[in-house]
Amino acid sequence: MNGADRDVDDLASIPGGTEQIVICRDRASGTRAVIALDDTTLGPALGGVRWVAYPSEAAAIAEVRRLARGMTLKNACADIPYGGGKSVILREAGSATREQVMRGFGRFVARLGGAYVPGVDMGTSVEDLAVIGEVAPDVSCDHVDPSPYTALGVLAAIEAAASASGIGNLEDLRVLVQGVGHVGESLALRLAARGARVLVADVDAGRAERVAKETGGVVVPPDAVSSTPCDVLAPCAAARVVDERNVGSLPCRAVVGAANDILARRGLHRHLVERGVVYVPDFVSNAGGVIQIHAIRAGWDEQTTERAVLRIGERVADLLAKAASSGLTPLEAAEEDASARIGRKVEIPS
Description:
The protein is an alpha/beta fold.
């Protein structure tokens, strides 16, 4: 079986299926994209636009479906009135300008009639969403970067997880922030301001050095992330940081981050629990950005928004307490909460 065949096989691995998948090709700009609406029970599907390279269209479809399911869980757990969706633009060599690509993508979104509300994600920016919004009927993140609020929510999740599990207070923690882009840098700065000892890893060595200097932290080589002792590993960049090779030896006491798809496969959450490593599902810890998006659209003021984001910490504490009392893992407990809100069983893919 070749790689493309395995990707197609993955399409059947999402419990409950996906409501709608749109495979798009804009002849004018040459733009190719995939949009997945996983579930719209709670409202229009809210989720980011990712623009990266994929080995095949099948690989892009498999990834966007997994990511869309994560958004369904995230928005349900955050108690906001949106379903889950995601989209990917297939990065290809071509003559179209970035603006032409975004306009072409915006035309695809427009055809969905408001069922999908796109936002920023890996490879796209607030400026890109503004261009998409000139064509599509509704977008998020077209004026404000949600990254600082995503970081604030992760900070609240780390603090709650550390307290609930007896790891300690923030000022006692060594937190390894893997990936210091918009979210990771903001998280590192917030952690340092609260007294945590910050370790920084990033594929961009210059950026890692700069953030380490700003936080009084230490740079960790990217290939040493899974072997560097710390109290909390906070993945804030690449997906699938925890995999079969390292799950049995991660030298940390908790995994709490901003990255999507932190686990390479679903079953790994049990390995972490068996080792006594606290795992906060990423769709719970990284919900600060979508909460801020809802806040803007609902007209909340800054204080109300910040309080709503900080409630992520309360959710994490409740989640860990529920898991401890019920025999569920934190992932299973979070999925159960989301499923109750949606009215059917919803879980991340195996």
